[in-house]
Amino acid sequence: MTEPWSGQDIKKCSGCGIRLQSTAQGEPGYLPDKAWEREPVICQRCFRIKNYNEASSVAVDQDEFLRLLGQIGGKNALVIHIVDLFDFEGSLISGLQRFVGNNPVILAVNKTDLLPKVTNWNKVLNWVQKSCKEHGLRTVDIVLCSAKKNQGFDRLLESVAARRGDRDVYVVGATNVGKSTLINRLIRDYSDLDQELTTSRYPGTTLDMVNIPLDDGKFIIDTPGIVYPWRYSELVSREDLGAIMPENPLKPMVYQLNEGQTLFFGGLGRFDFVQGEHQSFTCFVSGRLKIHRTKLERADELFEEHAGELLSPPTRERLAEMPEWTRHELRIPKGSRLDVFMSGLGWVKVNSDQGALVAVHVPRGVKVLLRPSLI
Hints:
InterPro entries: G_CP_dom, GTP-bd, GTP-bd_ribosome_bgen_YqeH, Mito_lipid_metab_GTPase, NOA1/YqeH-like_C, P-loop_NTPase. By secondary structure, this protein is α/β, with parallel strands linked by helices. Helix content is 23%, strand content 25%.
């Protein structure tokens, strides 16, 4: 499929100024074939804002996103940084502080509905505060919320109202963190958009930033979602994405392991208990991802024979399209309570404080780290 232009006749969106294209629906400037003859011609995202008071999510790569972020520091802005609690370290924008300058940042921690109902939320909030400090991110407020359950959004809107003043509101976040849901709620609560809105009311001044007018003359600036390649959500196929991204509250799975035992997470990852006393490990992964236990000495053979079948998703065909696995060896110090975190897949909580040596096998590039236990 090709775009209906040639030579110098390159069409751009009348709403946000992005170059239009019809080949990739999830990327900036997408316009369906049947819409090319509209006047004025606008991309699908601007069309949805104009006609449905609703923003949709698009994504750009890191370099382009950082270029866009670099403009915020010189603005009078309130920044809402939305992250995914299930993939906190994977979705947090590293180095955000140096881009936003002295502008205040509200951290919206989405997908709280995925944690068990018995979760101690004060502990989670303290955990997030410490994590922000470790990453050098200064926040004026942290709001735990769930876009799916519409929980915490009133609290977030109150925080925005208290701190916005005469500022524009920039919303930033990685892909698949719920940014468009937040944008749409802000539109409903703060904007005077209606069915008669013309595209000239929200001219995006920068590539793929959409300026959504507020009733006081200021704007919500919808930035594209940043694509972080170290997250499983950016590596797996669309068919497998539903298996790794949980929709319902996580049901922690506890395994009593002896030294030399392995857990497979479908065919997407592997956790080895290499060395240590008998102890328990709790897995926090999507309920649609089956966990298989085996002996470490048989793990390579099992994967070779059953990847894409017993160990699935993905299928053998889709597994062949993913990067080869890399082994990460991690030592759990005695006296510590840590999670083994795999970006976008979940985490394994080490329940004992007697220490252990573990190894994680994930596709090359996936972020793996040790962190203080979330819950």
